[in-house]
Amino acid sequence: MNQPTPSGPDLLDVLEARFNFRELRPGQRAVMDALLSGHSALAVFPTGGGKSLCYQLPALLLDGVTIVISPLIALMKDQIDFLSARGIAAVRLDSSLSADGAAEAHRDLRSGKTKLLYVAPERFVSERFMSLLKELKIAIFAVDEAHCISEWGHNFRPDYLRLADTARALGVPRVLALTATATPGVVRDVCATFGIREEHTVITGFYRPNLELRATAVSATARDRVLIERLRSRPPGSTIVYVTLQKTAEHVAEKLASAGLPARAYHAGMEAAERARVQDDWMQSDRGIVVATIAFGMGIDKPDVRYVDHYNLPKSLESYSQEIGRAGRDQAHSVVEVFVCGDDLPVLENFAYGDTPTEDALHGVVGAVLAAPQVELGLHALGTRHDVRPLVLRTALTYLELMGAVRQLTPHYAGYEVRLHRRLEEVIASVKGEPARFLEALFGHARKGRVLYAVDPAAAAAALEQPRERVVRALEYLERQGLAELKASDIRHRFVRVASTDDAGALVGELLARFARREDAEIGRVRQVIELLTSERCHAAALAAYFGERLDAACGRCTFCRAGVAVTLPEPAHAPPMPVGLDVAAFTALRAAHAGALGHPRQAARFLCGLSSPATTQAKLARDPLFGVLITRRFAEVLDWCAGLPRLTGAAAAT
């Protein structure tokens, strides 16, 4: 039943009382009105445009809990701190929570105390989490980074595709999809997936008039010097320097620090505590410089970033828009600059090529999924066995679902560890009648350790001739009553075969075609960045046009508007013929020792271009001096050379 929209003064009163804001930003009111009237909505606001408030404020006015789905842990932590400081009950559920913290979060949710729950999209594969949601009254299903739902968007995440089905299964009354980077095609995809009507799609525009867009052609050898000169010549201000690779972040930060600039590196290869220190120091400074890979800044709200420099080319116009959007959120003038260097192209293209699985790998995956009318698979083991990265594997499985070959059921856990808070006899005595006899029989089939009971729900259900669901419900009951602590393990993904054909070869062929199209699309995104930065038109207008917005006039301050001439892409440094730069004898010996990880030409090429895979990770090959030795060479060139190598006996069965 739809709720009426609160009157304007009531909405604004709550805004000021709980958030200390006196007015709404453009677009926010239209989104909130749609939600408060019981409709689903899409908010396409620029980075820093106030998307979060679109669900935070209605969450306080609607009965029930608002579920916020985001892949960004930093955003979850930042927003929960923000809400908690204002007396608003918000929690997150993720793997970093302790058992006690998770139990407390579950209690607060069931009691109705919690108004906002933050989770990652992967959380919805958990049968325990889905069971919890079915007990809750959900007010809003808020999907952040909603562009991830589009198969042909710039950051497709397979787990997002199932969110719409999940919302329908839970009977969610309203969905709010949010994104800062959606082309018109992606907007159509999101609206069709979630059933959002056109009149409830709110797009406030992508143009940021306070940002000055600059592009500077530079050679790879001169780039460090030019960056140092740029940083020294302008007024100090909070700065982000974006790079592509972790080792580049270390190199550039060291160069800047040696030049007397307050720069530090930030990347995923650092210890979590050190990353947190770097981020906190930068957040508190008005002139700190962080040299970071692209994950930095996502979900972090620092309004006074004055400069964003791209030391390396961004991988897409969507990424470029997001990253420069972290500058000038206080609406003050800010400068964003890209160093246009042709030497960056091979590394960016290689990331796209490196995700494409081999034909043999796909045969292995398809064979495993279609092995029986219904199968249960551990994805980690499946990906390791066939040397397919986790996201690529999930994408392949999602494609099989989209192709009508299989249907995925809700995954479940193959094992539970149970820590009782009382003696078993006392736990059983606390329950009466047949349930007590069931519990006694259940723990009779559990494997008892020193302090833990190990329960295999499927085996216990078969032994007791009871549904597996009853076993799981009984364990969850003990946890809810404070009688036990549960730890689930060994998640099993379940697939039902739908396709009437047994032609696995045809399915593999279609998968290969889909991955090839994705590969071409990702390479095309890199080319679009070059085309924009070297175009003979206003860069701000060209960027806005990519997202479907037409500016009335040129910005007047971008590089093209100021110079009146296009930036020219410098020719990359001449690469010597393959295999110059590679110790062939050492690589031959390494392949012979690791046939399962390097036996296939694509495996070998990935390794030489610095692209990890389950097989290289398992063999600890990323530590070898040859890993990434050809990172600056184009993947296709390296792959052609590797194709001339002998195929090794014992190469990974599915690679």
UniProtKB/TrEMBL annotation:
PANTHER family: ATP-DEPENDENT DNA HELICASE Q1, DNA HELICASE RECQ FAMILY MEMBER. Belongs to the helicase family. RecQ subfamily. Keywords: ATP-binding, DNA-binding, Helicase, Hydrolase, Isomerase, Metal-binding, Nucleotide-binding. It is an enzyme of class 5 (isomerase). It catalyses: Couples ATP hydrolysis with the unwinding of duplex DNA by translocating in the 3'-5' direction. It comes from Sorangium atrum. One of its GO terms (molecular function) is DNA helicase activity. Residues 223-373 form the Helicase C-terminal domain. This is ATP-dependent DNA helicase RecQ. Its EC number is 5.6.2.4. Residues 32-200 form the Helicase ATP-binding domain. It comes from the Bacteria. InterPro entries: DEAD/DEAH_box_helicase_dom, DNA_helicase_ATP-dep_RecQ, Helicase_ATP-bd, Helicase_C-like, P-loop_NTPase, RecQ_Zn-bd, WH-like_DNA-bd_sf. NCBIfam families: recQ_fam.
